[in-house]
Amino acid sequence: MQNYDKTDVSSVPGTAPDFRGNDGSLVSVLKTLLFFTILMITLPIGLYFTSKSFLFEASLGYSSNDSYFYAAIVAVLAVHVVLALFVYVAWNEGSRQWREGKQD
Hints:
One of its GO terms (biological process) is vacuolar proton-transporting V-type ATPase complex assembly. Belongs to the VMA21 family. This protein has helices at about 25-60, 65-104. By secondary structure, it is mainly α. It has a domain at about 25-60 and about 65-100. The relative contact order is 0.09.
């Protein structure tokens, strides 16, 4: 008869991996992803409409057609800034977790 008391369940094929030791890092990664997802949706759209209405049409006096064009440029720049920030944060978070794992 075989002794199954000390068998690592995560090594058995067909079972889910054990994430109990990484709950803090997994939650941290998901929070970061959720934050940047919300930022990616709201910031470009918000900047598009506010820059179109308040900056280009009201302050600078551009026509409606011109303000569409320049507001789109502002929104595209916002998307690039959010993506660059996400890459920076993800890169630093990954290297920090790697350093912490290396010290253990």
